[in-house]
Amino acid sequence: PVEATDDAFWDQFWADTATSVQDVFALVPAAEIRAVREESPSNLATLCYKAVEKLVQGAESGCHSEKERQIVLNCSRLLTRVLPYIFEDPDWRGFFWSTVPGAGRGGAEDDDENARPLAESLLLAIADLLFCPDFTVQSHRRSTVDSAEDIHSLDSCEYIWEAGVGFAHSPQPNYIHDMNRMELLKLLLTCFSEAMYLPPAPDSSSINPWVQFFCSTENRHALPLFTSLLNTVCAYDPVGYGIPYNHLLFSDYREPLVEEAAQVLIVTLDHDSATSASPTVDGTTTGTAMDDADPPGPENLFVNYLSRIHREEDFQFILKGIARLLSNPLLQTYLPNSTKKIQFHQELLVLFWKLCDFNKKFLFFVLKSSDVLDILVPILYFLNDARADQSRVGLMHIGVFILLLLSGERNFGVRLNKPYSVRVPMDIPVFTGTHADLLIVVFHKIITSGHQRLQPLFDCLLTIVVNVSPYLKSLSMVAANKLLHLLEAFSTTWFLFSAAQNHHLVFFLLEVFNNIIQYQFDGNSNLVYAIIRKRSVFHQLANLPTDPPAIHKALQRRRRPPEPLSRAGSQEGASMEGSRPAAPAEPGTLKTSLVATPGIDKLTEKSQVSEDGTLRSLDSAPQQSSVEDSPATEEPSQAWREQRRLSSASASGQWNPTSEWVLSWKSKLPLQTIMRLLQVLVPQVEKICIDKGLTDESEILRFLQHGTLVGLLPVPHPILIRKYQANSGTAMWFRTYMWGVIYLRNVDPPVWYDTDVKLFEIQRV
């Protein structure tokens, strides 16, 4: 053990002048940190305590000399290195939350009762240092003679890092300040990362004490820091000045800071909205928790501030910023590699999710104009690009979750009717149509040529299509054929009988067709034509065999390759020019495991659209036994997740369908509307073909365009929307996903690599 008073010994850890964080990681190997932890714990304790003390002193003095700044940076690098090894050992976890005897704030005369836990001192010092003039922010004092700005009387709201929400002045960019901020944010993120060393809890209510304290009223810089982080992310423009190859000439020191800011931001916003005090806001009122004096809103100030943003220009700034950054990887120029490609789109998607989830006014703003399409197109691009890559299954989920959340609002469906003209090179068939066509074509591609682990997402994908279907004015022929191809694939007897819940996919598709026929018949001659052409599929469904021998025979087909979705029945046109096919992960790619997501019945709640367009929630009370309604889920979703995985992956007869089971849902198949349509139109179409000797589609389409079914179809059913609802299952999923992304993205220096994380497993593809 070395005495805490032996300054000469301890100072050598931070007095050295020119180290970088990479040097610290190289000089302090993991094995040595663990050895000190096991063999001389008092030295490790002293080292941590001394390093925090140096940061506190730096924050108190305002870091005026170069030497002080160097000490602060070295201490923060050292703590960034050591903290994960403190967190991985359960015996050490309480260390930072204990007070150090005799370490009262004001020296000897202070009582030990007033001593803060080490963690609190550390967090407050980091917050102070992030607004330290001439170290992390521009000094406002002009003359050097003047006494240095007093760090205690400083109003950090005047030192916000970037213009945007709540701040109009954009400070001069300063490379050194950005680097210093980045090192301190990396330390902050490391403090928060204790969450990585706790296994995923089923109730997700475990609050991260580091985040809780940092985002509480104890931190006087909470508001300016929240604003600085948000504005730094949303104001960033990676293209920069529009000079091609600019990013190869000047290294962009802003990007690492923006990345770090985005990561710190999403971690501070890790808050389970399902259990929080703020009331839910339905589509009719646009109140937030803050308009009402009663509910105080979440304790976490970052969540609180985020939920209270309300000015249109602030929403515009945030939305434009996120859309600009999400679209960046899609920017195609004629000069290869001439623009910088950002890598932090997953953090941005989590941030966008949090914004929509915690601030309903922001969600309505996003959907109010067609700006939402600037978010939609990049998400569809990422989904399509990642569909074959096992290591990006988390990205697939968050993209689908965001679209599910948006699809619960009528405006999203309406916006999708905008023609799609931006030609982002994507590995999908060429089509002419709207954003709705793009969505359907991409979803079809994911379902038919994604990897097996995406099966749990099929329900979500089809729920999104159901939610938007009543508003789709005119599907292209390509998209109409894709939907019928999915129905064809999902309604084979082998697929329907091979797992307990596969028939739900057929119900979703029939609901899509019914919504379009009942509410948007006029513009949808392409879909009507496709339904007529594939009418045999509907007749087969109506005559689905239910006797045991037939079921047994259908399941015998399982001996053949079990992938039910071939691309054979789908006319695959040539892919778009300039697109690359979606590639699987390179072997050896690291990925982090994710907890299972709740089934669609837990993820969403059903609402009915009333005459006046408002939504009425359909509680779990007995519903009108409307035949249009897909059957309620019988088993718990976890069980059928498992069931479906087993039935598509193994032939071990886990699932035995019975005649009663098939009959129970076959009788509920909502086929009346389509059967009536076929009954009326098929003879007419056949007559035209015979009379005119036609084989030409265009003539038939022209006939269908002018046809009408008014008075011939059954009474329109009420529109059912399945809206996303917050629940602890998704909160836990977001936590594991977010920390997995942060773990994998921080490779230089590799902050958490090879430490014993418990929140997820690290796997190689």
UniProtKB/TrEMBL annotation:
**A cellular component annotation (GO) from this entry:** membrane
List the Pfam families.
Hid1
Mind telling me which InterPro entries this protein's record contains? Hid-1/Ecm30
Superkingdom of the source species: Eukaryota
Which residue stretches belong to region Disordered? 549-655
Cite the record's Polar residues compositional bias ranges: 646-655
Task: Kindly give the PANTHER family that the UniProt entry links to this protein.
Answer: PROTEIN HID1
Q: What name goes with this protein?
A: HID1 domain-containing protein
Q: What is the lineage of its organism?
A: Eukaryota, Metazoa, Chordata, Craniata, Vertebrata
